[in-house]
Write a structure and sequence with these properties.
The complex is a heterotrimer of chains A (102), B (104) and C (311).
Chain A lengths: L2 H22 L3 H22 L2 E2 L2 E2 L1 H32 L12
Antiparallel strand pairs in A: 1-2
Chain B lengths: L4 H26 L3 H27 L2 H31 L11
Chain C lengths: L2 H22 L3 H21 L3 H28 L15 H21 L7 H12 L4 H9 L1 H20 L17 H24 L7 H17 L3 E4 L4 H23 L10 H24 L3 E4 L3
Antiparallel strand pairs in C: 1-2
Classes of the chains: A mainly alpha (102), B mainly alpha (104), C mainly alpha (311).
């Protein structure tokens, strides 16, 4: 078993755990935690399947992941801003507040 | 695999540094209150960081890398000192200071 | 099994264990801290996979910055009296099977993708072959600025949109006073006077070495953001109600520098997004670094602009 396979399997497990966390979480912050972990798992996944060149992992994949990390934090920041505003307006920190039919 | 003297010294420093980190972590887990834990963390981990940086510097055998490692060590010390100070201060001014209430 | 693989297995198991802790934990604050730890371990695994650029970015942005943003949001909720920060979770019957299937699916896709033979002229290999023509030594910087410059430019656009979106939902209310580090203690001002200049130095270093070694605009921007976060937390700079011209210019600097240089290539009869030389690389990277740092600091402070304390 090579290192990339080890990390690939770990990424798969973390992705699954993230999906679980996303489903069962009530608090929006918890959902964001789960989403971010899924994102990290995907980044690891991309690098482990991209193959290697003599100078380390595929540079294209690395640049892709680098871009992805920055986009992920930007999206997270926006989501957090939305969450704080929603809390100020409604006092709620979860998405199933009103309709209660889930 | 042959090991030169520098490799041996470097590896020894690294292992020693890791031992200090281990001790600091045991202290964090086992000590009763926040002050004791901070004591274990800052004392042992700063020493561990110094040893690890020294080990890496010896292994690298380059003055440029050594200078960068020195910067890392200094920044690590600064961060540890300030954060430990702020945590202790926060704990002391908090609802449960955990020490006799004599004013500094 | 060599000792290296053993380290990898330990790291992978820690990743899985930590993510389980974060998902099933009871106390939200503790899980946030564990999430930051998770990010740091991910950064370590990048280093193990031989991707130091990504490791730097993950440690600074993925773990540090995301963690700081989340802790700040948590504190805002707590300050507003969010009662239940660790509520009982819903337990849909299908959650576990769906999650397991998702994980297994990813593993199957990944394992079969790893088995695919790498074509000799894969894009990544071509990048390494053509790199010397760009004058850059770091293939990742080469991809980001030269080969896929358009992607990076649009990424700056995404950052800008995130900032504008955050401004849009900011609300009319004056940004509430943050609970700040108390500056009574001399250590905090000592930290500011030493660390702020050092972060500038480190950011510049990362930016300059980024052309040939691990580093670049993203990592430098993240380090600079760290300085900004410090200034916000210590109350050295305070939220302002409206963004001035300088703030707006800096926020679009990365996108504008990229777009102007990219389009001016057309006027000179070259393909769009061709960079005219190394000076363009440094110019764009500097502009990107400043834009990233400003955007992230504003997002962290949840404000339209920042400025020194006004009397």
């Amino acid at each position: 078993m090579t290192s990339t396979t080890v990390y690939l399997l770990a990424a798969s497990a973390v992705f699954g755990i993230g999906v679980y966390g996303l489903i069962v979480a009530d608090h929006i912050l918890r959902k964001l935690l789960a989403l971010n972990m899924m994102g990290s798992a995907v980044f690891v996944f991309i690098l482990t399947v991209a193959g290697v060149t003599p100078e380390g992992p595929d540079p294209l994949a690395q640049a892709l992941v680098l871009t992805g990390i920055v986009i992920a934090v930007a999206a997270t920041a926006f989501a957090l801003a939305l969450m704080v505003r929603m809390f100020q307006e409604t006092g709620l920190t979860s998405l199933q507040g009103h309709d209660g039919d889930d | 695999m042959t090991m030169g003297l520098a490799d041996l010294i470097g590896a020894t420093l690294l292992v020693l540094g890791c031992a200090f980190y281990g001790a600091g972590t045991v202290g964090l887990l086992r000590f009763p209150d926040v002050y004791n834990r901070l004591h274990a963390l800052t004392k042992a981990d700063n020493q561990g960081l110094l040893l690890v940086c020294a080990g890496l510097a010896v292994l690298s055998g380059s003055w440029g890398v050594t200078a960068l490692l020195a910067v890392i060590w200094l920044l690590g010390l600064t961060a540890a000192a300030v954060s430990a100070h702020l945590i202790a201060r926060h704990a002391r001014h908090g609802p449960d200071p955990g020490v006799s209430a004599e004013e500094p | 099994m060599t000792i290296g693989v053993l380290v990898d297995v330990l790291l992978a198991l820690s990743l899985v264990g930590l993510s389980l802790q974060v998902v099933t934990g009871r106390a939200l604050f503790r899980d946030l801290v564990l999430f930051i730890l998770f990010g740091l371990l991910i950064a370590l695994s990048w280093a193990r996979l031989g991707a130091p650029d990504v490791a730097l970015a993950e440690a600074a942005i993925g773990a540090g910055l995301t963690g700081a943003l989340m802790l700040m949001a948590y504190r805002r909720l707590a300050a507003g009296g969010a009662a239940d920060v660790s509520p009982a979770r819903r337990r849909p019957l299908l959650a576990l099977p769906v999650a397991a299937l998702a994980g297994i699916l990813v593993a199957i896709i990944g394992l079969s993708a790893q088995g695919v033979e790498r074509v000799p002229d894969a894009a990544g290999t071509l990048v390494l072959q053509e790199l010397s023509a760009t004058g850059l030594g770091n293939p990742i910087t080469g991809v980001l600025l030269v080969f896929r410059g358009l992607d990076t430019m649009l990424e700056m656009a995404v950052l800008l949109v995130a900032l504008l979106g955050a401004w849009a939902v900011l609300g009319a209310a004056h940004p509430g006073r943050l609970h700040q580090v108390d500056r009574e203690t001399p250590l905090v001002s000592a930290l500011l006077t030493t660390v702020a200049p050092v972060t500038l130095l480190i950011a510049t270093h990362l930016l300059l070495v980024g052309t040939d070694a691990p580093g670049g605009a993203f990592q430098a921007g993240a380090v600079l953001t760290g300085c900004g976060v410090l200034l916000v937390l210590t109350g050295t700079v305070r939220p302002r109600a409206a963004a001035g011209l300088l703030t707006k210019l800096l926020a679009i600097a990365g996108l504008a520098a990229f777009a102007l240089i990219g389009v001016s290539a057309l006027a000179l009869g070259r393909a769009p997004m061709t960079l005219p030389g190394m000076w363009a690389v440094y110019l764009i990277e500097t502009a990107m670094m400043l834009s990233i740092a400003l955007t992230m600091t504003l997002l962290f402070a949840r404000s339209r602009a920042l400025g020194p304390e006004q009397r």
